[in-house]
Amino acid sequence: MRRIHLLFASLALTVLMSGVADAQGWGSIKGRFIYDGKPPAPQPIAVTKDQQFCGDKKLVDESLVVDAKGGLKNVIVYIYVGPGDTAPQVHPDLAKQAPVTFDNKNCRFDPRVATVQTGQTLILSNSDPIAHNTKVDAFNQPINPLLPPGAKLPQKFTAPERLPARASCSIHPWMTGWIVVKEHPYMAVTDENGEFEIKNIPEGNWTFQFWHEKAGYLDTVSMNGKSVEWKRGRVELNIKDKAALNLGEVKVPAAAF
Amino acid sequence: MDSRVVLFLLLSTGFFLSGCDSPEADFRLDRVYIQKTLGEPENGEEVQALTTQLQNLKDVMVGLFGTPDDPHVPQLADVEVGEVLDPQLIRMAAGPVGRHEDGTPRGLYREHCAHCHGVSGDGAGPTAAFLNPYPRDYRMAKFKFKSTPLGVKPTHDDLRRILIDGIPGTAMPSFRLLADDEIDALAHYVKYLAIRGEVERRLVNLLTELDEGEPVLDPLVRREAADVFQEQLGMVRETVGMVVGQWENASAQVTEVPTPPEDWMSEESIRHGRDLFFGTVANCVKCHGQLALGDGETGDYDDWTKEIDDKNPALQAKEYLALGVQEPRILNPRPIQPRNLRAGIYRGGRRPVDLFLRVKNGIEGTPMPAAPATGLTSEDIWSIIAYVRSLPHEPMSKPEGHGIEYGRERL
Predict the structure, then answer these.
(1) Within 13 Å and on the Cβ side, how many CA atoms surround B276?
(2) Element of type H or E holding A237
(3) At B276, is the secondary structure helix, strand, or coil?
(4) Domain segments of chain B as ranges
(5) Which of B1, B319, B330, B405 sits most deeply, having the most CB atoms within 10 A of its CB?
């Protein structure tokens, strides 16, 4: 009896392992998004609530953040899994995903964009001395918990979301953030310099999708001076073993925003 | 098992529709969601591709759910709808108003509901524009007043209760005088419209993943490429199964309401509730206001209005109208008002258990959040309710110049 159990256990383990990693190569992708135009000046936000605390935080509209060199922040990049397609295999290093924190800090969401895999823990937290609520308009699993000061609320999403889900605080109407939920860990958000990198992608052809909250899907961009059409922000790219695919500078025309 | 869908598709692609004098009642596609999700086609080719896809979508929807005059529940392999949707009761609610020879009614939905909620359940019937709040649009499958947490569908009994009690403070009347099976029939029909609406939305989502002009389910490939057809059918089956499954699981997720402590309406409890009302844990004051008149945060919109646009629905509504998206009619967006807690009117019901559920679970589709998981006990929630119920009544309006002359002396 015991032997049978062991047999099943090892079988189950093999199946499980094969889902995690196969004998194959892994590569990565990186690039830098550039706002093609004169960077807009940050617009101050009119603080209408909790002025004693939020009033002096110098809040600005962060829906479009561009640095001095044109680097475009908060472009969301992920591997697109179409209907009927299988999700990319998960590299052993990525099998265990640490919780991601989505904090209410200084009357804004920090980070503005959080990415989580289905089943991964997202900690909705509030570092402010005032109360917030975080309303996430996810298509499959909408949530709207109230977060008292110091709250740390673990949250899991069971189904992937087609689009980044808008997060807002009903008490402080200027607060906007985004939660990206996918069934795999291959997603990234561009940093202050407009740079992103996704590592440990299984080799082969993958469709990548690019989205920005103001521009929507990035469907018209220019690379190496040439205009490129990415239908619905999608482009198929080949990832090679032990190689980093560098998209270089991807320019997004100012008209897209 | 899938034969009905397939049969309909085959028929609809032919030239089956013969002439008919009066137009048949029709479920309208959700043009706003389609526009929002798929965007505006940029050239003639794209217009053509989208038109083809939408015609196919409409055919698939008819294949799955039938028409307002001849509704049926989805008949798909591996999708059990029996628990959720009762075909017989749905037929009793559907169709033109009338009675069968044996006296049983038909057309209950059109008799009692459609003038406000619309034939398609889009909340945009002929009288909708004159009401405040607007009638519910069922197609998002979100319901405010229910016994289940946010994100979980309401139970059959939740819908029955709204039908029986009505919604105080709104145009939704009580249908207590209807026979019990008629209430059941209407509740099933609302579920039918909500499930139908959500399936349509999910199939529109699916269109964004398909190639340009590629249909959801193409009957023409059925013979030539059976595997492609099976794959498409699998997609539809998965979508319908998922939506129906959510309704099936609702009754297992009902929030348990603990019995209130004996002294929950004591002065001490009310004082505690008041502290919580103004404190940073429950924080009711931010939206409902210092005097609980619902005059705190007032610039937000509900999810049905945000469907038009998240940030500026009024502006976007104008743009939609300019684009000719008039079906369904777009109702002039109104900001959502936090409830005035001193009018003595509670839309989801005034029983303590109703108020507990509103505070504990929040209100779906609105900015009202769920109580924090930690830091606010059930006793605390009961105290908040006690405080709210203790507030002095504030009449909605005080007509000036009329005093006691209109009052009636108590005999």
Answers:
(1) 24
(2) strand A234-239
(3) helix
(4) 1-254, 267-300+335-390
(5) B330
Q: What is the side-by-side order of every strand in the sheet holding A226-229?
A: A195-202, A26-36, A244-253, A220-223, A226-229
Mean pLDDT of B103-113: 95
Domains A24-86+187-257 and A98-184 share a fold: yes
Question: Looking at domain A98-184, what is its CATH homologous superfamily?
Answer: Cupredoxins -  blue copper proteins (2.60.40.420)
Q: Which amino acid is at B98?
A: G
Give percent of chain A with pLDDT exceeding 70: 91
pLDDT digits (tens, 9 = 90+) for B25-77: 889 899 889 988 988 888 899 999 999 999 999 999 999 999 999 999 999 98
Is the CATH number of domain A24-86+187-257 2.60.40.10?
yes
By C-alpha distance, the chain A residue nearest B363 is A144
Cβ atoms of B240 and B76 within 8 Å: the answer is yes
Report how far residue A199's alpha carbon sits from residue A188's, in angstroms, rounded to the nearest whole number: 10
| Residue whose structure tokens are 């992920």 | A78
For residue B10, what are its two tokens?
A: 């085959």
Distance of CA A199 to the CA centre of its chain: 14
Q: How far is A5 from chain B (nearest CA, A)?
A: 32
Pairing of strands A195-202, A26-36: antiparallel
CATH of domain B267-300+335-390: 1.10.760.10
Q: For residue range B190-205, what is the model confidence (pLDDT) as tens digits?
A: 999 999 999 999 999 9
Rounded distance between C-alpha atoms, residue B356 and residue B366, angstroms: 17
Residue located via tokens 């009401």: B131
Out of A188-197, A210-219, B245-254, B397-406, which region has the weakest mean confidence (pLDDT)?
Answer: B397-406
Cross-chain residue pair A148–B231, CB shorter than 8 Å: no
Which residues of A sit within 8 Å Cβ distance of B? 48-49, 82-84, 129-131, 133, 135, 137, 139, 141-149, 151, 153, 162, 166, 170-171, 173, 231-232
Delimit the domains of chain A by residue range: 24-86+187-257, 98-184
